[in-house]
Design goal:
Structural class: alpha/beta
Largest sheet: 5 strands, mixed
Shape: globular
Number of strands: 5
Helix content: 40-55%
Strand content: 15-25%
Radius of gyration: 19 Å
Strand order of the largest sheet: 3-2-1-4-5
CATH class: Alpha Beta
Number of helices: 10
């Protein structure tokens, strides 16, 4: 069985301050900043001062952006037809609704997941949060073939973690998405950065977080297309067709962040979008 669609996604998170007291022993009535600081100090302690970034269970999902495309097979070659780019859930959706919607939407037909560092971060976060909310996701664990499933690290047919693919599964440096985009003349980060998500969330600026998440999804898709073209799976005409569909989607959209994405892309590539 081969997946019939791509599902390119990215999540945005904030620290789950509700877990601070249980994890760190801080006062349950402490302020938000005090709880976050307690979680930061905990992670510094358990990593010998090397990494304050919270481990996967202590992130709360506030946005999920995704792109879908149909996969057409021609022997060993593939081509993609873009169908949608959007953020999941209503703007006021709870985390439980976002996570339930994610796992429910993907249950059939099973897609090829495409992420950047998703095997290390996005998928584990979603799994922990699903378990916290009692959400089942049996499809994620299907193992009809022990080598070709979502659990097999090297089964890029099912989960294509682009970071694993470009670094040869860690043989070379595990670079950032923005660095790969810079090297390939794609837009990369502009405007927001991951470090901005928490303060923006505190200020109630969720639409801007969702917009930022969608541009990260587009960057991931563009890098994935180039990786597959490099591998010879996506022939150059099929690559150019996929790029044309992205440009058409942007042109037909009234979303300002997609217009901004186009201008950043235009500047990065010198107005040469195609191979």
């Amino acid at each position: 069985m081969k997946p019939q669609r791509l599902f390119v996604f990215d999540i945005e998170t904030v620290v789950d301050d509700a877990l601070a007291a249980a994890l760190t022993g801080c006062d349950a009535g402490a302020s938000l900043s005090e709880k976050r600081q307690a979680i930061t100090e905990y992670h510094l302690a358990v990593t010998d001062g090397k990494n304050p970034f919270p481990r996967q269970p202590f992130h709360r999902v506030v946005a999920i952006g995704f792109l879908e495309a149909e996969i057409t097979y021609d022997g060993p070659n593939e081509s993609y037809t873009l169908t949608t780019l959007r953020s999941g859930g209503k703007e006021d959706a709870t985390e439980k609704e976002l996570v339930h919607g994610f796992f429910s939407h993907l249950s059939k037909p099973l897609p090829r997941l495409v992420t950047f560092n998703g095997r290390t971060f996005d998928v584990p976060v979603l799994k922990y949060r699903a378990m916290r909310h009692g959400i089942a996701a049996p499809w994620l664990y299907h193992t009809d073939n022990k080598w070709e499933n979502y659990q097999s690290r090297y089964a890029t047919q099912w989960h294509a973690d682009v970071l694993d693919m470009v670094s040869d599964f860690g043989a070379s440096a595990r670079v950032r998405l923005n660095e790969v985009c810079t090297a390939l003349n794609f837009p990369g980060k502009f405007g927001l950065d991951g470090s901005d998500v928490e303060p923006y969330y505190d200020e109630g600026r969720l639409p801007e977080i969702r917009a930022y998440c969608e541009t990260d999804v587009l960057n991931t898709y563009l890098v994935y297309l180039r990786v597959m073209q490099h591998r010879g799976v996506l022939k150059t005409p099929a690559y150019n067709h996929a790029i044309a569909e992205v440009l058409s989607l942007i042109e037909s959209s009234d979303k300002e962040h997609l217009k901004d994405f186009y201008h950043a892309w235009q500047q990065a590539c010198g107005d040469v979008f195609y191979l």
